[in-house]
Structure formats: structure tokens, C-alpha cells
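Format notes (please read before filing issues)

Several people have asked whether sequences and C-alpha cells are stored in separate files. They are not. Every record keeps both together, in the order shown below: the sequence lines, then the C-alpha cell lines. Line labels are part of the format and must not be stripped during preprocessing.
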Amino acid sequence: MYYKVAKASEYLVITGAGIDDVKLVKKAWILPGQSCTAFDLSPVNYTFEVQAMSAEKLPFVLPAIFTIGPRADDIKSLELYAKLMTTHDKLSHHVRELVQGVIEGETRVLAASMTMEQIFRGTKEFKREVFDKVQLELNQFGLVIYNANVKQLVDVPGHEYFSYLGQKTQMEAANQAKIDVSEAKMKGEIGSKLREGQTVQNAAKIDAETKILSTQRHGEGMKEEIRVRSEVKVFENAREAEVAEANAELAMKKAGLTKDAQLAEVEAAKAVALREAELQQMVEKMNALTMTEKLKAEFLSKASVEYETKVQEANWELYKKQKEAEAIFYEKQKEAEAKKAIAEAELYARQQAAEGELYAKKKEAEGLIALGSAQATYVTTLLQSLGGNYHALRDYLMINNGMFQDIAKINADAVRGLQPKISVWTNGNGNEGDHNNKAMKEVAGVYQMLPPLFKTVQEQTGMLPPSWMGTLSTDSPIDHSPNSHT
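Then the structure lines:
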């Protein structure tokens, strides 16, 4: 079961359980076993080009636009339209063929009973006849024609009746115009000028009145459109408010019924338990009375002294057991209280430890966030100071963190582990007395060692030397000549 509300231009058609035929409403509760479908009441424009034939067997094409919709002021017509629309949409091919078939059939029948001249000269009467006959057929579907616009008749290719008729009319008009011109010339130029001036004045007057009327009609149309939109919006808001109110009322009723049902179940269960206890108590009393009477009947002959003695012994045993039970109960109660206190203490200690750990984690996270923020600020400041040069920033960080020294140390340790035999030789002339150029040769040797070193760093780390230390050509091979240092 659910609640459904139709839109402003719609109706709900309900069939099924409890409904003989169909039921049209704007809002309703849809019960199990019922089916609900919404259909729209807004009219639809149907454009056709009807091919018909006059009484003289002359074919022609009649372009027409019909605005057709359901008859909203008649409930019987709405029921007929609802039965038609429950299985088809109003824009479907089936509905269009139905309307087109009715219009084409009635138009052809009416055109066959009229001559071409009657159709051509009596377009208004022809339109009214078509309107009445089509409306008569559409009544059985609950439809009504809101507007019918019949355009100018068109010739069928190969049958140029209207074309020839138009040419004839044009020739007659041309001949009449020539006669009128001759008569105007006879009356003189003064009459001609007067007529032209009146024509221009009347034309200007008509144009001004037409423009004013058009502006007024356009303004009235816009006002009416705004008014209709406002009314539709107010109606939709009212309907949405009613739906929300109904949903809220339904939810409150459901909650109340659920609460009452649960209370009734609990009360019933407790009443049954109380009744069982009362009945059991009555049974125990009856059993005790029965046993007492039986004992009295069996042991009536015995001495009352023995009976009293037994009663006192039983009372003493009962009192003793009660005291023992009370002592055990008190001991158990104290043990439970002690365990409860220990559990509460352990729980409090765990809570304090968890809160301390949580506080430490928070502080650690805040420290990491602050450290990350400081590092980001540091890197951003360095990058801005270096003019946005990423490579210069990378080289600075590597130098500042001692990465080049670490790389050199790692390479030295690797070479030391291999225990290489290093030889240094030159291609000099061997003059031992030439001591002036010895220092410069040593410096030249150091510079000759830099390219292989930079090449090794690039191959191992993928990084190039900074721009202020020089550039390394990627296509220059490493010199392994005897003059190189290994």
C-alpha cells in the first residue's frame, strides 16, 4: 500500500480490487491488488497533409494542424480517454494513427461531395464541416478538438489546377489593373497624386495601429503566461505540502500502532507469567493441605509430644539452614562487590592508559605535521630564493646533506675492497730537469679526472653535475688512453 498524488495536469486512473470499472482521482491510497496509472490532460498538436479528391476527381493536398486533447470537463469522456491511454502514450504511433485516420477519412468523404470551386472559395465552411465531422468521431475516445488550422490547398504533382487557377486570377487582376491605370490617367495627375498621398497616409496609419495592437497583445500574452505559471507553481507547492503532511501523519500512526502492539505483547506475557505463579501457589497450598490432612489421618493416634518434638527439630534445622544460607549469601555478595571494584579499577586504568596513548599519538601526529609544514616552508623559501630553479635547489640540498661526499666515500670503499693496482703515467718527454711545468701538469691531471668522476655519478645516480661546475657531454666517451688516471 502506498500513497500517490497526480501532477497539476494529470489524473490517476485506478483499477483492481474494490473498483468495478475505473476510478479517476487526483490523489489516493493504492491498496494491494489495485493498479494505478497516471495520464496527462495537456493537448497535443497533430500535423497532417491529407490527400483528397474533389467531386470532379481532381486530387489535392490539404495541410492541416489539429490541437487535440481530452475533454477535461466531462468525467465520462475522461474515463474513455483513460482507457485509451493506459496502454499507449499520447505521443505514441498508435494514438497518432488513430487521430490521423479519423481526420483523413472525414476530410476525404467531405471533399468528395464538393466541387473544387466550392472547396477553394468556401475554405471557411469547408474547415467548419471538417471540424464538426471529426469531432463527432473523436467523441467516442473522449477527445476534443481545441483548435484546427487548415492551410492553403496545394496541388498534387502532375495536377496543377490551383496553379492554373492562380495564373487566371493573376491575368484578370493584371488586365483590371491596366484598365484602372488608363482611367486614372484620364482623371489627371492631380487625382493620381491625391490618391497616392491618401494611400501613404492610410498605410502609415494602419502600420502604426498594427504595431500598437501587436505590442498590447504581446504584453497581455506575457502577463497571462506569467499568471498561469504562478498559479501552477502555487498548486504544485500546495500538493507537495499535502503529500508531506500525509506522509508525516502516516509515519506517526505507524509508530503509535507499533508501540501499542509491543506494549500489548509485553503486558500479555507478564500477565501469563503472573497467572502461572498464582496457580502454582494455589497448587502448592492444596498439596500442603492435602498432605497435612493425610498425615493427621495416619498419625493421629501417635502422641502429640512426639509431634511437637519433631516440629521443634524441623524448625531448628530450618533456622540453621537459613542462617547458613544467609552467611553464604553475604559472603558471595561481598566477593561480587570486591570483583566489581577490581574490574572498575582495571577499567579506569585501561581508560587512562588508552587516553595517554591517544594523547601521545595526537602529539606525535601534530609534531609530524609541524615538521612537514616547516620542511615545506623551508623548501619553498629555498626554491623562491633560487628563482624557481629546481635543479639548483636539488644540487644545493645534495651538497648541504653531504650526498656527494657519501657517494665519493662509497665509491672509494668499493674500490678499496677491490684492492686495485693504480698506475699513473704521462706521455711527457722525460726531462727530469723540467720542474717549472710539473705543478701545472698535476692540476691538468686533476681536471682530466673530473669527467670520468661525473660520468660515474651520472650512471649510478642519474644526476648531472651542477651548472657552475661545468656540463658533461652525453656523447663524449671516457678517455682510457695511457694519459688518463685510473
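For reference, the curators noted about this record: The first helix runs from residue 75 to 85. The two ends are 94 Å apart (CA to CA).
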